[in-house]
Amino acid sequence: MTRNTLKPGKEMNSWRCYFSKLMRLSVRWVRLCPWQVRGRRPGPLRQLWSYGKVVFNSLYFNILTNWDTVLDSIFEPVYWLVDNLTRWFGVVFVCLVIALTTSVVLIVYLCVLPRIVRTYPAHWILWHLCYGHWNLVNIVFHYYKAITTSPGCPPQEKTDIPTVTICKKCIVPKPARTHHCSICNTCVLKMDHHCPWLNNCVGHFNHRYFFSFCLYMMMGCIYCSISAKDMFLEAYNAIESYYQTPPPQFTSEEKFFHKGLLYLWVLTSSVAVALGGLSLWHAVLITRGETSVERHINRKERKRLETIGQVFRNPYHHGGIKNWKILFGVEKKSQWITRVLLPSSHPPHGDGLTWDCPLRKQDTMDTI
């Protein structure tokens, strides 16, 4: 008696191969877990070793696996380690910023201001006192608000807010300009980046505080470097004379003054250069109506559209001056003083969920 056989095609062969490998994997798992048959509990090391072998072998017994999946699986522990270290080191970085800023302020009050009061004319003393304290208040206020203000997260419940995609990690709808932060383990509205010096994400509700802090800190460092330049040169020459024979006789207070000014000038000059570059970069992004994340996305989209003969237009670019007004929440000319030059905790423009796009309907095809 003969039996009709059906010649399987490529698709049927692939599925038979998949189920065959799956069965071999199941048999291997049973062999690796003899305690399930014999009724005894394994040791933790043997159980971990068996589980690791199954996980490793599963990479080769899945026909849907490609090299991207394999590399992501291999580097997943590295990503987890980096995210957790960044989260914990963020506390250390915040403490370091507070400690360095406090040390600079103490040296200014103990060394720089007394010299200014003794040697400068009255109008320059008044200017230093007013400008220095105004700058210090803005630095402290904006840094405190930047680290304590939440950048904003999309709502978890179902709403009628238009969304562009679903987050693969949060499994919640993502509005426009929203991105997932693996360090904070949540989606952030208008995410710019995760700043370890703030131990917080820079997003819609604290972007202004972050940029204002960078700007005022840079201005304060430049102010200290310029104001203490002559004192620094004097202190540097005095420190160089320590190694003469015989050495000059300086008191402990004078030595503290010399070393404090040297520390002050080197630290503030270095921070001024670093923050100057960072502030300039973010100023360019703000003028273009972009965030740091959108900068990379828009660059790729611009190259893609160039290959098909189209021009990319940023849908969130309202013009340079309008972009700055949106960031600072300025609507009237007087608010440049009350909301920019003076500390202000007013909310930003919009809710971070929906955005006004100044493009025409025919330009919406070029959005990101």
From TrEMBL:
<dbReference type="GO" id="GO:0016020">
    <property type="term" value="C:membrane"/>
</dbReference>
<feature type="transmembrane region" description="Helical">
    <location>
        <begin position="262"/>
        <end position="286"/>
    </location>
</feature>
<keyword id="KW-1133">Transmembrane helix</keyword>
<feature type="transmembrane region" description="Helical">
    <location>
        <begin position="48"/>
        <end position="67"/>
    </location>
</feature>
<protein>
    <recommendedName>
        <fullName>Palmitoyltransferase</fullName>
        <ecNumber>2.3.1.225</ecNumber>
    </recommendedName>
</protein>
<dbReference type="Pfam" id="PF01529">
    <property type="entry name" value="DHHC"/>
</dbReference>
<feature type="domain" description="Palmitoyltransferase DHHC">
    <location>
        <begin position="166"/>
        <end position="296"/>
    </location>
</feature>
<keyword id="KW-0812">Transmembrane</keyword>
<dbReference type="InterPro" id="IPR039859">
    <property type="entry name" value="PFA4/ZDH16/20/ERF2-like"/>
</dbReference>
<keyword id="KW-0012">Acyltransferase</keyword>
<keyword id="KW-0808">Transferase</keyword>
<comment type="similarity">
    <text>Belongs to the DHHC palmitoyltransferase family.</text>
</comment>
<feature type="transmembrane region" description="Helical">
    <location>
        <begin position="209"/>
        <end position="228"/>
    </location>
</feature>
<dbReference type="GO" id="GO:0019706">
    <property type="term" value="F:protein-cysteine S-palmitoyltransferase activity"/>
</dbReference>
<dbReference type="InterPro" id="IPR001594">
    <property type="entry name" value="Palmitoyltrfase_DHHC"/>
</dbReference>
<keyword id="KW-0472">Membrane</keyword>
<feature type="transmembrane region" description="Helical">
    <location>
        <begin position="87"/>
        <end position="112"/>
    </location>
</feature>
